Amino acid sequence: MLSDVGSKTTVQNISKIFCGNHDAVADLAMMIDSRRMPHAFILEGADGLGKSTFARIIARGAMCTCAEPLSGECPHCRKLRDNIHPDLIYIQGSGKLGAISIDSVREMRINCQIAPNEADKRVFVLEDCDNMLSAAQNAFLKIFEESPPHIVFVMTCRSAMNLLTTIRSRGRIITLHPVKTEEGAEFICRTRPDVDPDTAADACAKSGGNIGEALRFLGGGDDELNNRAENVTLGIIRAMCGGSELELAAKCAAIGRDRELAGAVCARLCEQLRCCVVTAAGACDTLDSPSPEIMRLGATVSADTLIKYIDEINILSDWLKININMPLFNTRLAIILQRR
Ligand SMILES: [Zn+2]
Questions:
Q1: Phi and psi at residue 156, in whole multiples of 5°?
Q2: Ligand 1 centroid – CA 77 distance (Å)
Q3: Could you tell me where the DSSP H helices lie in 41-171?
Q4: Which stretches of the chain score pLDDT less than 70?
Q5: Å from CA of 297 to ligand 1 middle
Q6: 78 alpha carbon to ligand 1 midpoint, in Å?
Q7: Multiple choice CATH, 4-175, 2.30.30.280, 3.50.30.10, 3.40.190.10, 3.40.50.300
Q8: What is the β-pairing status of strands 88-91 and 122-126?
Q9: What distance in Å separates the CA atoms of residue 177 and residue 170, rounded to the nearest whole number?
């Protein structure tokens, strides 16, 4: 039997990082505490309600080794918080519909047989499954049936009704809802000390309790976004220093469908490339010494090419304002950075 206290602590730990949605949080806390994580989750809800964040919390629940679940001190909690855990794998859509293709599913099938790198479980997050074609969904069903016990799948979608009944019946459906204005405002003020309570309440009311949208209204100051941008940028720069074209494409694809992240990565990338030009020219304009990756890139790519990258990234990042298709954006970024 579970102790109520244990469960309450887990609920509190999740609520520190996820706003409202008390039923979903209580359900997940119960599964984590009882160490009975389902094989597959289906997370449904409108954009901005926190499906990606909740998927990462599920991954933490599956991998966490903290004495008190999700208290944040174990290496898995830390790496998942920074989005650098090797056992959390994102599967994203491509093409016009931005749907997960049958080829991606087949690739995942092979990937599922690999043992976890660091944790006891490997978590596959299949993002935006609404447009996934029946053939791809059916191929996924096969993996479902044959995958080893160390695998947890999390599918995210606007509505579970867009998935095949056979998939729906095998996954634990969790529905995310908008939150109450007071609750949302309190959460925003706690995670964004730069925002005052009235402004936070106003943004929550305007967004109808959609935290993601409220944060977009407020703009800036997002530490989590900055961390993610930093990690994605580092991955891209490493792949540029001697990685294969495929590796570079995969690192750019890590941006996913997050426009805000894409904008932040472009800005960070330009900053790093500028530092690279300066370093290659023998000067140093920062207080910190340049990272080994920057030194290597500066030694292998000419300054002219680096400057061209910066120009093209700036043009590409303008496309974000006119609603460019994100898989296309990520591919384009990889193509720009492959040119020598
Ligand atoms: Zn932990």
A1: -115, 145
A2: 4
A3: 51-63, 75-81, 102-111, 134-146, 165-168
A4: 1-6, 220-223, 283-289
A5: 36
A6: 7
A7: 3.40.50.300
A8: parallel
A9: 22
Beta strands of 88-135 (E only): which ranges? 88-91, 122-126
- Among 179, 182, 109, smallest CA distance to 140 is for 109
On whether the 223-338 domain is CATH 1.20.272, my answer is yes
Structure tokens at 113: 């047989």
**How many CA atoms, within 13 angstroms, populate the side-chain half-sphere of residue 68?**
13
Q: How far is the CA of 63 from the centre of ligand 1 (A)?
A: 7
Q: Global pTM?
A: 0.68
| Cα of 73 from ligand 1 centre, angstroms | 6
User: How many whole angstroms from 32 Cα to the centroid of ligand 1?
Assistant: 11
Tokens describing residue 224: 């989590």
For 305-334, what is each residue's pLDDT tens digit?
999 999 999 999 988 877 788 888 999 999
Ligand 1 mean position to 21 CA, how many Å?
A: 21
CA of 329 to the centre of ligand 1 (A): 34
What integer pLDDT is reported at residue 336 of this predicted model? Answer: 94
